[in-house]
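Sanity check

After download, print the first record. It should look like this:
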Amino acid sequence: MPAGALFTIWARRAVAIGAVFALAGCAAGNHPAQPESTGLANPANAEIAAKAQMPGVSQMYETAAAAYGGGDYRRAAELFGVLAGDAADPVLARRAAYGQACALLLAAGAPEEYAAALAKWNAWAATPPRPEIAEDPRMLAPLLQVQRQPGGARDAAKPSKADAECARRLADKEKEVRLLVNQIKALEKIHREIQERKKELSSP
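Expected structure tokens:
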């Protein structure tokens, strides 16, 4: 084969190989390389993922507040307790802790329950206040309307009509009993006087 023809063949091969590499470079340029994973999660994405795993948190708080407003303090304390311990949002968690303390104070019936509720209140009060968190002061209204003794018992409320009627009947019965006792004593006195009179008449 002549030297000129051989050179032409090698030149064509070189051009073809160059074209292949050029096309590969263009393909790489059209698809930018993915960044290498560092193994560290993006904090913003982690927060979004955490909130995505807790659907209905706001709805649960509204349900707890509704139970509190309806007087179901034990149910409210249960729901507020879940939010106070598990809520990813610190603002919501503090408000829930406040609601739980108020609900437990109102639901306490025994001294030990009141002591536990007071401990929850003290735990909430011990956390530093934050300007962006505003607990609902209206939750204190039921607490202000119900006074409690140190032992946890409620002060005696105004008696109902049924209680007042029972008290009146009891007082009437006590009067009847006292009257009967006085009558019995009077009869016993008369009986003694009669017996003494008989003795006097029977004596010589």
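If your output differs, re-run the checksum step. Summary of this record's structure: The helical segments are 3-30, 43-52, 57-69, 73-86, 90-107, 111-126, 141-145, 161-202.
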